[in-house]
Amino acid sequence: MNSKDVVAVVTGGASGLGEACTKALVEKGAKVVIIDIDSDKGEKLAAGIGAGAIFVKTDVTSETDVRQAIQKAVEAFGKINVVINCAGIVNPGKIIGRKGPLPLEAFNKVLQLNLVGTLNMIRLTVEQMMNNTPDEESEKGVIINTASIAAFEGQIGQAAYSASKAGIVGMTLPIAREISDYGIRIVTIAPGIFETPMMAGLPPAVKEDMAKTVPFPRRLGKPVEFAKLVLHIIDNTMLNGCCIRLDGALRMPAK
Q: Is 161 a catalytic residue?
């Protein structure tokens, strides 16, 4: 798919990996709908970009919110043919912590945003993308999800996060098999340790120690490197139904 023909919806698009994707897409000539719950960041980013982007405050777990965002995207740019799901939270917690067992509401909060929110975006945007005119390869759309290497090597305290990201990995292939009939692809990226707002609150010494665990390059990943992979997935039609690790060969220890 030619990036200049792209109209992308990016969840969590106002910061971190989502912001990097938003900027990279606009630089390539795409139109972007920034979806986030942070109005200040979202509106500021869209204003800085100009005509190439709009911001729509959206809770990805809400069917009403997502349908309204889709409607505004189509009204602004005529279609949606790319969806990039970056919205998510970590919210760590041990199964048995200092205050007792992990509260179910804490576990459910992570699954609702990370896993159910991703599925909500997929199911509603696929319904819209089915109406697109296929390109020369009969393609109508591309969906790119964000998982994590925690889906495979979750650490102590990451039961909820790992479960949510493993769910994203696990549903990629069955969804690909279904939506391939409509000319729509889906690919999941499992990033390692990246320089995102989730990492910003950690002391520099802690981040340095984490960077040393990455075989090569021995540093944290940069959001722009995630965005580069996103652009390649959009461009490479043969990528479908898979999960790509983007981690510098890192395999997470238990803690």
A: yes
